[in-house]
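Aim 2 progress update. The chain analyzed this quarter is reproduced below.
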Amino acid sequence: MSQEVSVPVPESDSAFSLEKTNRLRGMLIVGIFIFHFCGMFPYEIVPGVGHLLVGAFFMLSGFGLMESFKNKKNYLDDFIGKKTARLLVPVWIAGLLVLVFQWFVFDNHSILNDQRYLFDIISGGPASTTTWFVVELIFFYMIFYISFKYLKPKLAIVAVTAMSLLLMALLSQQQPMWYGSGMMFPVGIIWSYYREKIESVKPHGLLIVSICATLILTYAVSKYLEPAINNLIYGNLQCLLVGTILLASLVTRKNNIAQWLAALLLCNIVYYASGVQLGHLDNLATILPLITILSIVAGLDVLSPMTDFMGEISYEFYIIHGMMILVSKAWFPDLMTCLISSFVLSLVFAFVIKRVSNVFFDSKKRKSVTSG
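Predicted structure tokens:
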């Protein structure tokens, strides 16, 4: 009897390869940019995808940490220092840029007397945007480190999930952005732990999962978005279902592009029909179509130079794009000009922040190699 030899799948051929998840991350940040831009103008239709896409970011963060833990020896050595530095150095640079723009564009010479800016300089100042995301990620990094440092993997996953749930519950009286998507971090860790099993699921099974997730998402959003968007259970439920659709999209595309597009199309058809039935379309009708477009763009190899670049600077783009929207709004009253300007400025300054941050970290690497 011949013995079947298991050959590891090359990383680039995996549905969840670094390159594919990086491209998805790049498109998610575009969706968040669209959400924030629309929120600053009197649009009748605003794609309510903010916490859903942030939840996907948390999921990708958890997935990335677990993948590195599985594949890198001594990964937890100096983990907290390295990870927090990677988060905070770009944010400090962004904070200085915020100070410059406040001083010269908005003529706000009293900003240094603003206690909010002084106390929040660690996260870029109150006018940069979404600084809560950085602080929450640091909490998750600490939880991950403590759990995987002292427990076996399965117990560590249980511990991370329990501590994340406790953290979200304790924050239930705070801003909904803090806890409406936070449980996606342990979901990302679980996704990585069972990666091979998830990736081996048959495409038609994922199509069914995607459609069912769409139906449940439609019902949850239509019934609970107002006023219960701040609710811990429903906020994270929506994020979980969007995450399921994104995972199904990644796997289905790897197996068959036609089935991938069909799955996304059917999700949208079911979503639209459900919205009509429930009588709650309005701006909610833009949620899944926008996620679908982002998924398709992230999956097109012909656009990989653009999506790769967006993925590489996604974090820096995230922490500076709000300031760039405000600056463009002050400079350009025309809507389309403001949109283009704010996006281009966000790209430019995200790239600058990335390069300056890399100089700092590259110099540290060179010193450690020299001393070694």
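The radius of gyration is 21 Å. Confidence is low (pLDDT under 50) at residues 1-10, 368-372. These observations will guide the mutagenesis experiments scheduled for the next reporting period.
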